[in-house]
Amino acid sequence: MYLTSEEEKALDGEFGTAVQTAMKILVTIGDIFEADRLIPVSSVHMPGSSVVVSGRAGAKFVRRMADEGGLFRVLTTLNPAATDLEMWREMGVPEEVYREQLELTEAYRRMGAVDVHTCIPYLAGNTPAYGSDVAWGESSAVVYANSILGARTNREGGPSALASAVAGRTPRYGMHLEENRVPTVRVRVGAEVEGVEAYGSLGYYVGGVAEDGVPFIEGLPRGVWIDELKMLSAALATSGAVPMFHAPGITPEASLKVVREAVEGLEVVEVGHGELREVREKLCTADAGDVSAVCVGCPHASVSEALSVLRTLGNRKANLMFWIFTSTHVKHVLKRMGVLTKMSSLGVQILCDTCPILAPMKDISESLGVDAVATNSAKLAHYLNSKYGIKTFYGSLERCVEVAVSGGRR
Ligand code: F3S
């Protein structure tokens, strides 16, 4: 792989040990994927920001980079942590996990990370421009960045994202190359798709068909909302390893000549009500009457999603634990709007900086007695079932709210 003279110096250790380590990681990855050179990135989104994901060895590596003077050269945001950094007791997170998380977060802060743990960095100030190269982790954010923003990123792991943040570069391969961004499967949506849960079901079905390819999805309405698009992005990367999608009239690259030409020769996969029902039946593994908690906000809830919970509840009270996972940005806005108090009086708790999958869910479920969860997120339903053996009632926000009001297993 070609390196500039400055990159050679960095690799030789002229700019310090942390930069040298970062360069070694990037050069190794570049060689594996046969990248021709390194390219500058305008931002990084860091996966492995939860101690549950990084493990002790990963957290130690991050601390070592900080101790060796590593500094982030580009805007770097953090993915969700293992706990709400303030409400860890209420979440049932063991103190040891909280303390380890604080140390990891502190190491990232020392290197200059933007102090927000969220999987929707594009709604928290990390919003790359069309065509820019970035190094992001977190599969749902990667699909969103490539597809909706038209930025270019591979799905980075913890070490490579950390290396890119310190070196300000990434190897040029994969989704940074135009030829890998063309459609590989053509999908025609015949069903009416509306609401976050429906977009999750659609994404989950299409992800299973596309696997690690790039779907071209026709038939989506132009008025599709950002909350629906982030759920679609998350679900595509849950049942499959989709890095991006195209949707005419919605995503910026769908109208490019190279994309239009590539789609012409592809076989069409039809998705109708039957396929969406199939997903719902697969992900809905619990009866409403068995549910002990409701979780909304996977991916993290936007302000509009949080407000729609309140609107759907009206003046009814949740008679089960009702959690909305989101960023500190969103919580702050809700507080300023004066709705936090109202939410808490209705039994809805806003949790920040974390998510149920990146938290120590086994400990939490044991401590709070959560064994079946209602959610409108296909991604959350998939991982609660497959990773933690927690059953899910999967349905629209309206249905989840009904479950909360009626009291589930109470
Ligand atoms: Fe975000 Fe966690 Fe879901 S990282 S997409 S809330 S699994």
Explain what the structure shows.
Helix content is 46%, strand content 14%. The chain is α/β, with parallel strands linked by helices and 410 residues long. It folds into three domains: 5-176, 2-Layer Sandwich (Aconitase, domain 3); 182-280, no CATH class; 284-406, 2-Layer Sandwich (Aconitase, domain 3). A five-stranded parallel beta sheet has the order 11-10-9-12-13, with helices on both faces. Strands 3-2-4 form a three-stranded parallel beta sheet, covered by helices on one side. A three-stranded parallel beta sheet has the order 7-6-8. Strand 9, helix 12 (303-313) and strand 10 (321-326) form a beta-alpha-beta unit. The radius of gyration is 21 Å and the shape is globular. The protein starts with a helix and ends with a helix. The mean pLDDT is 97. Bound molecules: FE3-S4 cluster (F3S). FE3-S4 cluster (F3S) binds at residues 79-80, 119, 138, 140, 234, 298-300, 325, 355, 357-358, 379-380.
